[in-house]
TrEMBL record:
Similarity annotation: Belongs to the enolase family.
GO biological process, one term: glycolytic process
GO molecular function: phosphopyruvate hydratase activity
Provenance organism: Nothobranchius korthausae
Protein name: phosphopyruvate hydratase
Enolase C-terminal TIM barrel domain: residues covered: 6-35
């Protein structure tokens, strides 16, 4: 799929934890098949807080 990041929300609910566990198992399956390609690690994107615009330093 070419995804770099997946946003799931907090891991507090059973449904979210199930999604996370499924992603981990997919990663393991792809690694075993040799289909998983690791890219250069980058920091996660920054999201502004709700109601605040991102600041632009000049």
């Amino acid at each position: 799929l070419g995804l770099e990041y997946v946003k799931l929300g907090g891991l507090s609910g059973a449904e979210r934890m199930a999604k996370y566990n499924r992603l981990v198992s997919i990663e393991e399956e792809l690694a075993q098949q040799g289909d998983l390609v690791y890219k250069e690690r980058r920091p996660p994107p920054l999201f502004p807080e709700k109601g605040r615009e991102p600041s632009t330093a000049e």
